[in-house]
Amino acid sequence: MIKSMTGYGKSQLSDSLGVISIEIKSLNHRYFEFSAKVPKGCVFLEEKVRDIVRTKLIRGKCDVILNIEGFDHLKNVSVNHEAAGAYFRALADLKKQYNLVDDMSLSLLSKFQDVLVADKLQLDENLLTSKVAETTNLALDDLIMMREKEGQRLKIDIGSRLDLIFSIVNDIEKRMPDILNSYKCRLRQSISEFINEEKLTIDENRILTEVAIFADKTAIDEETVRIKSHIDQFRSLLESDGEVGRKMEFLVQELNREVNTIGSKVQDVDISSMIVELKVQIEKIREQVQNIE
Asked: In this structure, are residues 26 and 60 in contact, taking their beta carbons and an 8 Å threshold?
């Protein structure tokens, strides 16, 4: 199943230790490009997340935002008696010096930050890494589902354009005999006008030779066969898995090459109009292929 490179996924994991949330956004890019925003003190998680994403995304510009709450809960709160005593004596001195009537209270002393000291648990990196990995995989599944849905839409659109290109190429092939007959008639008319003036006889062999030379110069059989072959390869890729975008880009270039060759070989108003339509459809396919992984 082909995939678009555009997608978005998110996931959140909550338990007694804390909450982990992750958002992953991907856009089309020629290669794989990764960037992540992780909480301060958790830089070690960036490489882990990148490795997980890399196993599931082949191409695209991937941006990750990781948020972590908890996992470093308070273990113990103790009193810094030295600081508390210093604050108490200072407050008592203020009260005595300025004849203050307010009593010193527990709530007042506890407001000083260095009076109560909170010890935190040592961060368990292995546990946190495991939970971040689980959350990342869930978000990736969400993103990949979106990319697959968009890929199906691209598949349908490209398939319909390939059908149209195939049909136009058939019309061009059907038009070629008329072009040869038209050339033969114009050539005969031109020669007739000339020999009538000179009172000469038409050389049918010469006319047939000129028509054969013209037919050889304007022959497009090889180009139309290659175009149809490229279309068959394109359709096979649309049914394939994995990285097919670059192969499609190559086929688009080859389709353009063959169409340009036909346009340069055949100077006909009807075919010129069909060549323009072919180029329009190929350009539309090229735009779509740029977003396929």
From this structure: yes
- Mean pLDDT for 254-272 is 91
Task: Say what angle helices 44-56 and 125-198 make with each other, to 10 degrees.
Answer: 40
Nearest CA-CA partner of 26 in 1, 9, 51: 9
Distance CA 153, CA 240 (A): 15
In angstroms, rounded to a whole number, what is the distance separating the alpha carbons of residues 157 and 153? 6
- Please return the burial class of 50, using the count of CB atoms within 10 Å of its CB with bins 0-12, 13-18 and 19+: middle
Q: How far apart are CA 234 and CA 237, in angstroms?
A: 5
Distance, in Å, from the CA atom of 175 to the CA atom of 286, rounded to the nearest integer, reads 27
**47 near 187, Cβ under 8 Å?**
no
From residue 254, give the alpha-carbon distance in Å to each of 49, 170, 229, 264.
38, 18, 11, 15
* Bridge partner residues of 36 (DSSP): 64
pLDDT in tens, 119-170: 655 567 888 899 999 999 999 999 999 999 999 999 999 999 999 999 999 9
Q: Rounded to whole angstroms, how far apart are CA atoms 177 and 195?
A: 27
